[in-house]
Amino acid sequence: MAKKIAVLGTGYVGLVTSVGLADFGNTVVGVDLRQDIVDTLNGGTPTIYELGLEDYLQRNLATGRLTFTSAGGAAIREADIVFLAVGTPPAADGHADLSQVEAAARSIGENLTAYKVVVTKSTVPVGTNRRVQQIIAETSGATPGEGFSVASNPEFLREGKAVQDFFHPDRIVLGVEDDNARRYLEDIYRALNLIQTPFVWCNLETAELIKYASNAFLATKITFINQMANLAEAAGADIHTIARSMGMDGRISPKFLHPGPGYGGSCFPKDTKAVVATGDALGVDMSLIREVVHANNEQKRITATKLVRLMGGGVAGKTVAVLGLAFKAETDDVRESPAIEIVQELLRQGAQVRAFDPEGIENFRTAVLGEGPFGGGLDPQLRGEIADAAAQRLLYCQDEFAALEGADGMIIVTEWNAFRNLDLERAAQLMTGRVIFDARNVLDPAQAQRHGFTYAGVGRVAPG
């Protein structure tokens, strides 16, 4: 039986969840405190870039199954199920900031007029769902399991492939502790059960930790291959052959064995820090993940340093084309993007930067200025200095070739398909210099050299 659902939060997780659950036949109201976001979404325009999202959004708005509102109290009162999909950004000590989760829980308690299942979709540390349960009970006076139920349903959406992942997930993790909550969740996810998606039923704490364990492991795998790439480069070995051979081992698999400038985005950086902070709070040694956090930050610094070295040891007065600002392809998310560290270092050293990204320019601009949802990505001590420099020496270009015009060198930071097929003959005609640092290993080194470029990748042996 279709349910009435309220989704609190319309960010990456909340918007994709709202659209997806509506497409499953449920009646969904997405809630955001900002009326301008609500108006934009009700007008059929996504506030984030995700492949296929706009089509799903417009289709479900047209059916009437999906609407958006800033009236959160009314949406909660009318819902059978309330999803928490609010932000949990990292606090200064590495712990997840749960202020938005707690505020949402209080709002649910204040508007609890009938039995509801409250489902935490946000990524939260172990114990958060117990805290949500406590807040709702104290605010409403209702008894957990009778007046309401709390469940944990962590998301595993890859940015850039979030719509695909919602409709074709590897598994659905559901932390529930009473039969009513289980029945409600079985109803709303019936479409996935019909295509035999594995359902993992467990308690609240297990569901919470599954999410962190998964992201911490993937971040570790990325960091491992980056360090092996650095070693391969120093030893004269080829990381592509090494990674391909490793991936042939069924115990390892080839996924996430692609070297680059370090991971970024909204998940891996904050989740690895949160795992370390949770371990510290519980007296458990999480030294491996702590080193992953440190090594990933070092990889970004190494990338920037290598670029400067490749350009003769200094970039003052030189022009560098930076291709790619989002932390990965097929998204406009620049949070913790390696491009931030790279552009910051280039500006600090006096370079002229010509930057292009197919989707991430506006978000990157706000990050550099310290404004908007992505603001604060830069070192606070340098933000004013960098913003001033950016106004004079950072130019955002309309395409990759405009960025390459007059450049002494280029760096490919994000693996967009357009960069994989970069016209090197045209690039050579446009550029003043002949330096390519391919931080994603998307170009053919031999072809780059045939066009007169000095080429460097990550962990690759340049052709002789």
Assembly state: single chain
CATH topology of the largest domain: Rossmann fold
- The total beta strand count reads 14
| CA-based shape | elongated
Q: So what's the CATH class of the largest domain?
A: Alpha Beta
Strand order of the largest sheet: 3-2-1-4-5-6
The count of domains is 2
Percent helix:
40-55%
- Measured between the Cα atoms of the first and last residue, the distance is 66 Å
Describe the structure.
There is one protein chain. The chain has 2 domains: 4-202, NAD(P)-binding Rossmann-like Domain (Rossmann fold, 3-Layer(aba) Sandwich), CATH 3.40.50; 230-456, Rossmann fold, CATH 3.40.50. The chain is 47% helix and 13% strand. The chain has helices spanning 12-23, 35-42, 53-63, 72-78, 99-110, 128-140, 162-167, 179-188, 190-194, 204-235, 239-247, 268-282, 287-310, 338-348, 361-369, 380-393, 400-404, 417-420, 424-430, 445-450, and strands at 4-8, 27-31, 66-69, 81-84, 116-120, 148-152, 172-175, 199-202, 319-323, 352-356, 394-396, 409-412, 435-438, 454-456. It has a 6-stranded parallel sheet, sandwiched between helices. The chain has a 6-stranded parallel sheet with strand order 11-10-9-12-13-14. Helix 10 packs parallel to helix 13 (287-310), helix 12 (268-282) packs antiparallel against helix 13 and helix 13 (287-310) crosses helix 14.
Compact summary:
Helix content is 47%, strand content 13%. About 2% of the residues have low confidence.
